[in-house]
């Protein structure tokens, strides 16, 4: 599923332990405090996939508020 510029993938790790993985739609890394991540696994072991997705949406909203997605800069050509 897609949400605010991110793809969310819910996955089960153990019986009934749901997690979520997020990555940007444009496949650029997420940069947090100068460290780039191609994808992030977020949240806790939720009881179902929908709870993991809801938590991932909360994390995406937080990342977007922190302006993690930086606009691409134009390169100068000499």
Q: Describe it for me?
A:
By secondary structure, this protein is α+β, with helices and mostly antiparallel strands. Helices cover 22% and strands 37% of the residues. It has one helix and six strands, in the order E-E-E-E-E-E-H. The longest helix has 17 residues. The mean pLDDT is 86.
Report a brief summary of the structure:
With 78 residues, the chain is of the alpha+beta class.
- The proportion of strand residues reads 35-45%
Outline the low-pLDDT stretches.
none
Helix content: 10-25%
Count up the helices: 1
Biggest sheet strand order reads 1-2-3-6
Radius of gyration: 14 Å
In angstroms, what separates the terminal alpha carbons? 41 Å
Structural class: alpha+beta
Which key phrases capture this entry?
single chain; alpha+beta; four-stranded antiparallel sheet; two-stranded antiparallel ribbon; elongated
List the helices and strands and how they pair.
Layout: E1 2-3, E2 6-12, E3 18-24, E4 30-32, E5 35-37, E6 40-46, H1 49-65
Antiparallel strand pairs: 1-2, 2-3, 3-6, 4-5
């Amino acid at each position: 599923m897609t949400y605010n510029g991110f793809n969310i993938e819910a996955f089960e790790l153990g019986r009934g332990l749901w997690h979520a993985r997020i990555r940007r739609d444009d496949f650029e890394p997420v940069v947090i405090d100068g460290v780039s991540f191609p994808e992030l696994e977020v949240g806790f072991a939720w009881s179902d996939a929908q709870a993991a997705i809801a938590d991932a949406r909360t994390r995406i909203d937080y990342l977007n508020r922190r302006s993690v997605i930086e606009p691409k800069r134009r390169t100068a050509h000499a």
